[in-house]
Design brief:
heterodimer, A: globular, B: 5-stranded antiparallel beta sheet, about 45% helix
C-alpha cells in the first residue's frame, strides 16, 4: 500500500530526525576536536541540513510524484541508481547502528546499570520492526502525536538548566584546521534530511507548505543551538568529559537540586526520540532495499535487516566505540557523496533537462 | 373457489409456523363471507385485538378488504399477498383472511413487555436529559425522532439474522452524513450472515475494520441526547432491536474522553475534567508498570526518601516485585468479578472480605506491601473514569505491568510508541482513529481534549468526511 503523508507530518519527521545523534555525545566530541570552536562546527553542519532540505524542495518541485530511485535511474542509468541505493542501504544501516549504540550507552549509564546489552537490542528491534510493518503513515502520525510532548520536554530541559556565562570558553581559541577537520569528520552525524529523498514519492508537499515546513525544522534547529550553547556555557573547559549532553545540563544545574533526578525528563525524551528516529531510518532502509531488489517483499527485507543487525551487534563487530570511530572516519566519505554529490547532481541534471 | 378457502389457508399458515402453541386462530362467520384471523398471542395487544379488530369485523355488514380497512381503526393496516402472511404474523401483526379474496390484511398491534425509558446506569448525569434507550426499537426510534422535527432524518430498516430476523435501523441526517459511509455501513450489515442478533454487540465485530484489535472502533451509547448530537455531527447511528445500546460510526479514540456532562457544564470545567480523564487513563495503564520498572531496574532514580519507604515496606516479602503486583492486581480482578455477579445484598460482605481481610491481613502477614496495594488501587480506580474502555485498559494495564517488569522504562516507552503508531494505523470509515491529534485537524481541536464554548463550534468535525461543514453561523 503506497501510503502518503502530509507536509506537516513530513516536517515533523524531519524535525525529529534533526535531533538524531546530536544531543548526547556529539557536543563533547566537537569540543575535543576544536574546543569552543566546536560550536561553529555544529552551526556549519546544521547549515548543511538546510542545504539538503533546500535541494529536496527543488527536486520535489520538479518531480512532485516521482520516486527518487526512478529519478536517478532516469538520469544516470540503472547501474548508477543501484550503486547509489546500495550506498544508501549501507548508510542507513550504519546510521541505525550508531543511534542504537549511542542510545544504549546513554541509557546504560543513566538508568540501566545492571541491564544486559540484549535487553536494548530486543526492545529496539521489536518496536522498530513492528512500526515499520505498520507503514510510513502511522509512523508519521505517531511522530505527530508525540511531537508536542518531545519539544515541550526539550524546552523544559533548557529552561531547567543553568547557564553560567562566565564559564563560556573563548571562541577562536583553536587552530582553524581543526575546524575543517571537525566539519568533515562529523558529516555523518548530520544529513538526516536525506531520509526525505527516500520517501519523497509519499510526501504531499505544495509550494505554500514550504514556510510551514521550514518553521518546524527551524524550531528544532534553535532548540539544538540552545542545547549546545547551554552545554558549553555550563561545562566550559570540561565539556569533553560530559558524554551525555542533554542529561548532564540538568544534572549539573544546582538550581533544582532538591527536586531529585530531573534528568529523568531528558532520559524519557531521548527514549521517545530514539524509537521514532530508529523506526524512520529503518523504514528508509527498507525502502532502499526494496527499490534495489524490487522482487523482495517487506517481510523479507525486515528479516534480512533484523538478522544482519543482530549478527553485527551480538558479535560486537560494531560497539559504542567502533561505531563512533567508524562514524567519524569511513562514513564521512559516504556522507559526503550521499548528502551533497548525489542530490546536487540530480538537481543539476533535472534543471538542465528541463531547460532543454 | 377452494384456493381462497379460509380454513385451508389458516391451516397452511399454522403449518408454516409449526403449530406453535402461541399461534391463535379464529374464524368469524358472516352472512356474505368467512373471515379468518391468525396472530401470535404472545406478541399482540389483546385489548386492541378484541376492540379494534374483532368488534369491527363482527359489526360490519359487508366484509371485503376495502371495507374492513376503513372500519378497523386499531393501528397501521397493510394489504399483502398470502405468501407474506407468515412473515407478517411473526412481526406481530394480526393477519385477516377473507374467503374468496386473494389478498390479506395485516394489522400491526404488536405489543410485548418493555420497560419505560430511564436513566442508564452507565452514563448518569448531574445536569442534562436523564432518559436512556430501552430494549424496544420503536421506543428508541421515538427518542431519537422527537429530537429532529426535520424531514432529513432518514431511518433505514434492515433485517439481519437467519433465525432472529432482527430489525436494525440506521439513522442519519441526509445532506450531512457522508453517503459513502452510509452505503458502506449498509453493505457491511447486509453481508452479515449469522443465526441471530441478540444485542447490538453481536454486530460490532462485523462493523469494525480491525476486528482482532483490542481497541473499540464503534461508538456505543445508551443516551438519546448523545446519539442525536452524534447524528448532527454527521455520524450514522445503528439501532438494534432488543438492545438499549445504540452504535455510532465513524468512531474516534478521543470520543471516549468526552462525556455528555461536558456539554451541560462550563466549557472551562469540561476542558479540565477531560484532561483529568486522560490523565486517569495514563495512570490506569502505565503506573503499575512504571512502579515495577522503578523497583526492578531503576532504583537509582527513585528519590532517596521514597526509596527508603519502599525498601522498609517490601523487606521480607516472599514474592518478586512483579509477582507481588500481579498477585494484587489479580486479587482485585477476582473481587471485581465477584461483585458483578453477586446479589447486591452481598456487596458489603465482599467489600469487607476484599478490603479488610485480604488487603489488610495480606499486608500484616507480609505477603504484599502497602505501596503495591496503593499503586494497584489507584490504577484500578482510575480505570473507571472511562468505564466504556475499562476492559481494554485492563488488558493494557497487565501488558505494561509485564513489560515494566521485564524490560523497564525503555520497554514501557517502546510499547507506548508502538501503541500510538498502531492506533494511528486504524482508519475506520474514513476517520483516522487518533484524529484530531494525529493527523492534526485544527478545526476539530475546539472539541477535543480542550473545549471551546459551544457557540464557537462553527463547524462539524472534519476528522471524518461530512457533506455539510457548517454547524452554525
Amino acid at each position: 500500500m503506497n501510503q502518503t503523508i502530509s507536509a506537516r507530518q513530513t516536517a515533523i519527521l524531519a524535525s525529529i530526525l534533526l535531533f538524531a545523534n546530536k544531543i548526547l555525545v556529539l557536543p563533547s566530541l566537537l569540543y575535543e576536536i576544536s574546543s569552543a570552536d566546536g560550536f561553529f562546527i555544529f552551526i556549519t553542519l546544521l547549515a548543511t541540513e538546510f542545504i539538503i532540505l533546500f535541494i529536496f524542495f527543488k527536486i520535489k518541485t520538479i518531480f512532485p510524484r516521482e520516486n527518487f530511485y526512478q529519478i536517478i535511474k532516469q538520469y544516470f542509468g540503472i547501474i548508477t541508481a543501484k550503486l547509489f541505493y546500495f550506498l544508501l542501504i549501507l548508510y542507513f544501516f550504519f546510521k541505525i547502528l550508531l543511534i542504537f549504540n549511542i542510545s544504549y550507552m546513554y541509557f546504560h549509564i543513566q538508568v540501566y546499570i545492571d541491564a544486559a546489552y540484549y535487553l536494548f537490542l530486543f526492545c529496539f528491534l521489536v518496536i522498530m520492526t513492528t512500526c515499520v510493518f505498520r507503514g510510513i503513515r502511522p509512523l508519521a502520525r505517531g511522530a505527530e502525536f508525540f511531537y508536542f510532548l518531545i519539544i515541550s520536554c526539550l524546552i523544559f530541559i533548557i529552561l531547567l538548566s543553568f547557564a553560567n556565562y562566565d564559564r563560556f570558553p573563548l571562541f577562536f581559541d583553536s587552530n582553524p584546521a581543526n575546524y575543517f577537520k571537525g566539519v568533515f569528520n562529523n558529516l555523518f552525524c548530520f544529513g538526516d534530511m536525506l531520509v526525505l529523498f527516500v520517501i519523497m514519492d509519499r510526501v504531499q508537499l505544495k509550494r505554500k507548505d514550504k514556510t510551514m515546513f521550514l518553521r518546524y525544522v527551524f524550531t528544532s534547529a534553535i532548540i539544538l543551538l540552545l542545547i549546545y550553547f547551554m552545554f558549553y556555557s555550563i561545562f566550559g573547559q570540561t565539556s569533553f568529559i560530559h558524554k551525555n549532553a542533554i542529561s548532564d545540563i540538568i544534572t549539573f544545574s544546582y538550581r533544582f537540586i532538591d527536586l531529585g533526578r530531573l534528568d529523568i525528563i531528558a532520559i524519557i525524551t531521548v527514549m521517545f526520540l530514539s524509537f521514532l528516529q530508529l523506526s524512520v531510518y529503518f523504514f528508509a532502509f527498507c525502502q532502499c532495499f526494496m527499490s534495489l531488489f524490487s522482487k523482495l517483499s517487506l517481510t523479507y527485507t525486515v528479516c534480512v535487516f533484523d538478522l544482519a543487525f543482530v549478527a553485527v551487534v551480538a558479535s560486537s563487530v560494531v560497539n559504542y566505540l567502533t561505531a563512533i570511530n567508524l562514524g567519524t572516519t569511513v562514513m564521512c566519505y559516504f556522507a559526503l557523496v550521499l548528502h551533497f554529490v548525489l542530490p546536487i547532481l540530480v538537481l543539476c541534471f533535472a534543471k538542465f533537462r528541463r531547460q532543454r | 373457489m377452494l384456493f381462497y378457502d379460509v380454513e385451508s389457508r389458516l391451516e397452511k399458515i399454522k403449518q408454516q409456523l409449526n403449530s406453535s402453541s402461541d399461534v391463535g386462530t379464529r374464524i368469524i362467520q358472516k352472512s356474505t363471507a368467512k373471515v379468518g384471523i391468525v396472530y401470535l398471542r404472545s406478541m399482540v395487544d389483546s385489548a386492541l385485538f378484541a376492540d379494534g379488530i374483532c368488534r369491527p369485523i363482527i359489526e360490519s355488514q359487508h366484509v371485503d378488504i376495502e371495507n374492513l380497512s376503513s372500519k378497523i381503526s386499531a393501528a397501521q393496516i397493510t394489504q399483502a399477498s398470502f405468501d407474506q402472511a407468515c412473515e407478517k404474523v411473526l412481526a406481530g401483526n394480526v393477519v385477516i383472511l377473507i374467503s374468496e379474496q386473494e389478498n390479506i390484511l395485516a394489522v400491526d398491534i404488536l405489543k410485548y413487555p418493555a420497560r419505560i425509558p430511564s436513566e442508564p446506569p452507565t452514563s448518569s448525569v448531574i445536569q442534562g436529559p436523564r432518559e436512556g434507550f430501552t430494549e424496544d426499537i420503536r421506543t428508541n426510534i421515538t427518542l431519537i425522532r422527537r429530537r429532529f422535527y426535520n424531514k432529513n432524518l432518514v431511518l433505514k430498516d434492515l433485517f439481519v439474522g437467519k433465525y432472529s430476523h432482527t430489525r436494525i435501523t440506521l439513522a442519519y441526517l441526509k445532506g450531512v452524513a457522508n453517503k459513502q459511509v452510509v452505503d458502506e455501513i449498509t453493505k457491511k450489515l447486509e453481508s452479515i450472515k449469522v443465526d441471530g442478533i441478540i444485542d447490538s454487540h453481536y454486530i460490532i465485530k462485523h462493523l469494525e475494520k480491525h476486528p482482532r484489535s483490542l481497541f473499540k472502533q464503534v461508538g456505543s451509547m445508551e443516551k438519546p441526547d448523545i446519539i442525536a448530537a452524534k447524528i448532527l455531527e454527521g455520524r450514522v447511528a445503528i439501532i438494534v432491536d432488543g438492545s438499549p445500546i445504540v452504535l455510532t460510526l465513524p468512531f474516534l479514540f478521543f470520543e471516549e474522553v468526552q462525556a455528555s456532562n461536558d456539554y451541560y457544564n462550563s466549557y472551562i470545567y469540561a476542558s479540565f475534567i477531560r484532561c483529568v480523564r486522560l490523565f486517569a487513563i495514563i495512570i490506569a495503564v502505565v503506573v503499575p508498570g512504571i512502579y515495577i520498572a522503578l523497583r526492578v531496574f531503576h532504583q537509582n532514580i527513585i528519590p532517596i526518601k521514597f526509596l527508603i519507604t519502599i525498601t522498609n515496606t517490601t523487606k521480607g516479602l516472599p514474592f518478586t516485585p512483579f509477582l507481588e503486583m500481579l498477585f494484587i492486581s489479580l486479587l482485585f480482578q477476582i473481587l471485581y468479578e465477584v461483585s458483578l455477579r453477586l446479589p447486591s445484598y452481598l456487596g458489603l460482605a465482599t467489600s469487607i472480605v476484599g478490603a479488610l481481610i485480604l488487603g489488610d491481613t495480606g499486608v500484616k502477614a507480609g505477603l504484599i506491601s502497602p505501596p503495591g496495594v496503593i499503586i494497584v488501587a489507584l490504577a484500578k480506580i482510575a480505570l473507571y473514569t472511562v468505564p466504556e474502555q475499562a476492559y481494554q485498559l485492563t488488558i493494557l494495564q497487565y501488558l505494561f505491568l509485564f513489560i515494566g517488569g521485564s524490560l523497564g522504562m525503555l520497554g514501557i516507552v517502546g510499547l507506548l510508541v508502538y501503541l500510538v503508531v498502531y492506533l494511528a494505523s486504524i482508519d475506520g470509515y474514513g476517520a483516522p482513529y487518533l484524529a484530531p491529534y494525529a493527523p492534526r485537524v485544527y478545526s476539530d481541536l475546539n472539541d477535543a481534549l480542550l473545549m471551546q464554548p459551544t457557540n464557537q463550534m462553527k463547524f462539524r468535525p472534519q476528522s471524518f468526511k461530512n457533506r455539510n461543514k457548517t454547524r452554525q453561523k
